[in-house]
C-alpha cells in the first residue's frame, strides 16, 4: 500500500512517526474486518467417513440442499455452448498483506478489503479464496491436481465463485503467488498465519481469461445454491513440492462431481 501523503521525515520526524503509526493501525483494522468466522457453519462435517460428502444432507437441516438440491457443484464441464455475448470479467484486485487460516477442511486466504470483480455491471467483492486437493472441477471427466476457488459476494448477497485449475509441471516455474503463500500454510486446524509480503490475488489468474460459466452451489456445507460459477479454461502451474506440501495437510478435500440435471454450460470463447 503506498502512503497517501509523502512525509519529509528529516524535517518533520514527529509527524512521520504519527503517520506511520496511523497507517499500521489502519492495516490492522482492515485485516480484522476481512476475517469472518472460521467456518460457514457450526455443525462439523468432513470429506470422508460418517461426516463425509455422502452424508452432508443428514448432518444438519441447514445442509438439506447438499442432498436435495438440483443445482449442486462441482460438475463435469462438457458440451458447453459458445455465447459470444458473454463479456470478459473485470478484475479490480489489490495487493496487500493476507491472513491464512487452516479451517480443518481447507486452507483459506483472507485478503484486505477492496478487491472486487465486475460481471454484467454488478460489483462482487472478493471475500476469501481457498484450495481443493484434488481439483473439484472436471473438464470432460478429467480432474486437475488442485484448484483454487475465489469467493465473491455482491452488495445484495449474491455469490460468485471463480475457479482456477492447478496442475503440477516440473518444466515450468510455479506460480509466484503460490510460492509466496506456501511457506506460511498453517499446519493445524484453527491455526492462522499472517503474510506481511504484499500478495495480489490477480497473480493467480491465467493469461488467457477464457471461461466456462453455469449456475451452481457452494461445494461445501450448507451447499447454498444460486451461485454463479466461472471456471477458467487455462490452467496454472504448481511444483511437485507445493503439491506434496498441501497433500500432507489434506489428502482429500474435494467434493465428488454432482448431477448437472440438464443445466446449461456456456463458454465465452
Give the topology, please:
Layout (H helix, E strand, L loop, with lengths): L12 H21 L22 H4 L5 H4 L7 E2 L3 E2 L7 E3 L3 E7 L4 E4 L5 E4 L2 E11 L5 E2 L6 E9 L4 E10 L7 H6 L10 E8 L11 E7 L7 E8 L3 E3 L1 H10 L16 E2 L2
Parallel strand pairs: 1-8, 2-15, 10-13, 10-14
Antiparallel strand pairs: 3-6, 4-5, 4-11, 5-7, 6-7, 7-9, 9-10, 12-13, 12-15
Structure description:
- The protein is an alpha+beta fold and 269 residues long.
- It folds into two domains: 1-33; 39-267, Alpha carbonic anhydrase (Carbonic Anhydrase II, Roll), CATH 3.10.200.
- It contains five helices and 15 strands.
- It has helices spanning 13-33, 56-59, 65-68, 176-181, 240-249, and strands at residues 76-77, 81-82, 90-92, 96-102, 107-110, 116-119, 122-132, 138-139, 146-154, 159-168, 192-199, 211-217, 225-232, 236-238, 266-267.
- The strands form two sheets. Strands 2, 3, 4, 5, 6, 7, 9, 10, 11, 12, 13, 14 and 15 form a 13-stranded mixed beta sheet that branches.
- A hairpin with a 2-residue loop joins strand 6 (116-119) and strand 7 (122-132).
- The longest helix is centred in the N-terminal third of the chain and has 21 residues, at 13-33.
- The protein is globular and about 45 Å long.
- Mean pLDDT is 88; it is low at 1-39.
Amino acid at each position: 500500500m503506498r502512503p497517501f501523503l509523502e512525509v519529509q521525515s528529516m524535517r518533520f520526524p514527529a509527524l512521520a512517526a504519527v503517520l506511520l503509526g496511523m497507517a499500521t493501525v489502519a492495516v490492522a483494522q482492515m485485516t480484522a474486518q476481512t476475517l469472518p468466522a472460521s467456518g460457514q457453519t457450526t455443525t462439523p462435517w468432513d470429506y470422508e467417513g460418517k461426516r463425509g460428502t455422502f452424508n452432508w444432507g443428514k448432518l444438519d437441516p441447514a445442509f438439506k440442499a447438499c442432498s436435495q438440491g438440483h443445482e449442486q457443484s462441482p460438475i463435469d464441464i462438457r458440451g458447453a455452448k459458445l455465447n459470444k455475448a458473454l463479456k470478459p470479467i473485470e478484475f479490480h484486485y489489490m495487493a496487500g498483506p493476507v491472513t491464512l487460516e487452516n479451517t480443518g477442511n481447507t486452507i483459506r486466504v483472507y485478503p484486505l478489503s477492496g478487491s472486487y470483480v465486475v460481471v454484467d455491471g454488478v460489483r462482487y467483492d472478493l471475500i476469501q479464496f481457498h484450495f481443493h486437493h484434488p481439483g473439484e472441477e472436471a473438464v470432460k471427466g478429467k480432474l486437475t491436481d488442485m484448484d483454487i476457488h475465489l469467493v465473491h459476494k455482491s452488495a445484495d448477497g449474491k455469490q460468485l465463485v471463480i475457479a482456477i485449475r492447478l496442475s503440477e509441471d516440473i518444466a515450468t516455474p510455479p506460480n509466484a503467488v503460490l510460492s509466496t503463500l506456501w511457506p506460511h500454510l498453517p499446519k493445524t486446524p484453527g491455526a492462522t498465519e499472517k503474510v506481511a509480503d504484499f500478495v495480489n490475488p490477480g497473480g493467480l489468474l491465467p493469461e488467457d481469461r477464457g471461461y466456462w460459466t453455469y449456475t451452481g452451489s457452494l461445494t461445501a456445507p450448507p451447499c447454498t445454491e444460486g451461485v454463479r460459477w466461472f471456471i477458467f479454461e487455462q490452467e496454472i502451474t504448481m511444483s511437485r513440492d507445493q503439491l506434496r506440501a498441501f497433500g500432507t495437510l489434506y489428502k482429500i478435500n474435494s467434493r465428488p462431481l454432482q448431477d448437472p440435471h440438464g443445466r446449461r454450460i456456456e463458454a465465452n470463447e
